[in-house]
Amino acid sequence: MADDGSVRSVAQADIGIGKKLTGKLGLVRRPRVVSGTPRDPLDYGQVGLLAYLDSMIISSQLIAMRGGGALGELGLKTRLGGFALDLLHTQRQGSFINDQFADVAGGVRQRDELHLQGGVRLGGLPRLTLDLNALRNVLDQGPSNVQLGLRTSLMLWGTALSNSLRWQRTGEFSSTDGALQFSRRVADIGLNAQLNYRVHPGASLQAVAISADRKLADGYQVNAGLLRSMDSGLTLVSGGFSKNLGAFGLALSASYSSQRELALGLQLFVALDRDPRSGKWLMEGQPLAGTGAVSARAFVDRNMNGVRDPGEEFVPNAGFILNGGGRHPRLTDAGGVALLNRLTPGRYADIALDPATLEDPQWKPLTPGVRVLPRPGRVEPLEFPVITTSEVEGTVYLVDAGGRKRGIGDARVELVNGDGDVIATTTSAGDGYYLFHQVTPGTLRLRIAPDQAAQLKLNGSLARSVDVPATGDFLSGQDLEFRL
Q: Long-range contact list for 44-53, CB < 8 A, 24+ apart?
C-alpha cells in the first residue's frame, strides 16, 4: 500500500553469489492515474549487485520501466579516518516515471549525493560532531541546483550547542542561511533557544525563539515559549500542558500573537496494542505502529522440556530484562503473559527473565534468555520456562587413624554435571558444613576439588553421586569424608 492509498505489487529476491557478493532481482507493478482517470499500470524490472569489500560497500542497480525509460544507481559506503562516507549517483534515462524525484520541479535527470558524518577533538575541547550533506540536481528543464549543508554540535559545560548552515544555488541565484540552537537543563527545567539568521543576500537576524518545559510527576509536563520574527514583526506567546504516559496522551495548548490572534488546541493520543495469546487490547498514550513487541509467557516447566504442557502452572508478576540493562515496566499477569512493546525494530533485542521478580525463591529461569529481531507492527510470542531448584547440604569430615570424625573447614566442594563441567563451587565452613543454593534438577556428582585433594594427598570418600529432584525437595546429609 502506497502513501496515496493505491495498491502496489512487489516481488523481490536476494541471491548470494559469493561470500562478498549479493545479487538482487525484483518486479514492481503500480497503478497509474492521470487527471483522475485510471490508466494502464506501470511495470518495473530491477536487477542489482551488492559487494561487501574489506573497507567499503559498493551497490549498484538498474530499474527498467515497461514502455521505455530506466533508472540507474551507483553507491559507495566507506570510512575516512573517524568519518563515515556515503556517496550515491543516480541517472534517469528516457521517460522513466518515479516517485523519488516527484518533489523537484522540472524533472531530475541526474542526482549526486554526498553524506559525511563523524567527529573531531581539538586539543582539550569537547568532541565536535560534524555532519556534512551535499546534493546536486541536473534537471530536464531549467538550471541545475546545488545544496550544501553543514551541522556542527558539541556539549560544553552541560549545554548542548549546535549550528546548521545551508547554502543553495539555482542558476545565478544563491542564498545562505543558518540556525543556532542552545539547550540545557537547570534543576527540573529544560531551556531551549534558537536563532535563525541569513548570511546572504544581506546578513540579518530572521527569528528568535525561546522555550522552557518542566516535567511533573506521572508523565505530566508544562511548557511555555516566546517567538519573535524580525521579517514579519510577529510576536507569539505560547503555553501548554501535556500527559504522555498511561492509557492515553493529552495535550492542551494556547497561543496569542501581536496580531491579536488567539489559538487554542486540544489533542488526544490513543494507540492500541493486541496480545495474540489472549486477544486483549491494550491502550497506550504514545504511537506503537513503528515499533516491535514480544508476547512473553513464563511458566513452571516441571519436566524441563522447554514447552508448557497441560497442568504446568503460570508464573505471575515476573519481570523481564532488556539487553542486559533495565527492566521493562510490564509484569506478567495471572496467565503468566506480559506484552513487551516499544522494542526498536530491525535491531536484535536480548530478553531475559528477571530472577529477582520470581515469587518463589526456589524458581530459576531454565535458559539465560532469548534473542529476537523485532519488526514493526508484529508481536512475537516467546516462552520463558522456569524450573524448581533444590538445595544440597552436607558436611565435610576429616577421619583420623582411630576412625574419629571432625568437620573440616576451607574444603572446596564442587558440583559436576554429566559432561564433567563444574556448575557450582563452594567452600566448607569451620565446622565442615557446606550448602549449594538453586541447584538444577538432574543427576550430578559431588566432589572435593581434585587439585586440592592432590595437593593435600587426600583419600577416602572424596566424591558421591546425587539425584536432584524436580520437586524442589532439599537434599540433606550429603557428607564427604577423607583421610590424610
A: 46/12, 47/23, 48/23, 48/24, 49/17, 49/21, 49/22, 49/23, 49/24, 50/21, 50/22, 50/23, 50/24, 51/20, 51/21, 51/22, 52/20, 52/21, 52/22, 53/20
36-45: burial string, b at 16+ Cβ within 10 Å, e else: eeeeeebebe
Residues 40 and 4 occupy one common structural domain: yes
pLDDT in tens, 93-103: 887 877 666 55
Q: Say which residue the cell 533444590 belongs to.
A: 390
* Exposure string over 336-370, b if 16+ CB within 10 A, otherwise e: bbbbbbbbeeeeebebbbeeebbeeebbbbbeebb
Nearest alpha-carbon partner for 319 in 272, 269, 250, 369: 369
pLDDT value of position 103: 52
- 459 occurs within a structural domain: yes
Q: What is the mean pLDDT of the chain?
A: 86
Which pLDDT band, with edges at 50, 70 and 90, does 36 fall under? low
Please tell me whether residues 383 and 395 are part of one structural domain.
Answer: no
Regarding whether 405 and 423 lie in a shared domain, the answer is yes
The tens digit of pLDDT for each residue in 369-386 reads 889 888 887 888 999 999
Domain of 438 in residue numbering reads as 390-483
Is 150 part of any domain? Answer: no
Question: Are residues 373 and 404 both part of a single domain?
Answer: no
Q: Is 329 exposed, middle or buried (0-12, 13-18, 19+ CB in 10 A)?
A: exposed
- 395 and 379 housed in the same domain: no
Looking at residue 6, what is its pLDDT?
58
Domain boundary among 42, 76, 102: 102
SS3 call for 219: helix
Residue 122, judged by CB atoms within 10 A of its CB (0-12, 13-18, 19+), counts as exposed
Mean pLDDT value of segment 25-41? 75
Instruction: Please indicate, yes or no, if residue 134 is contained in any of the structural domains.
Output: no
Over residues 201-206, the mean pLDDT reads 90
Q: How many domains does the chain have?
A: 3
Asked which of 46, 75, 102 is the last residue of a domain, the reply is 102
Regarding whether 399 and 329 lie in a shared domain, the answer is no
Rg over alpha carbons for the chain, rounded to the nearest Å, is: 34
Has residue 344 been placed in a domain? yes
- Please state the pTM of the whole predicted model: 0.57
379-388 and 292-300: which strand pairing?
Answer: parallel
Q: Percent of the chain scored above 90 by pLDDT? A: 32
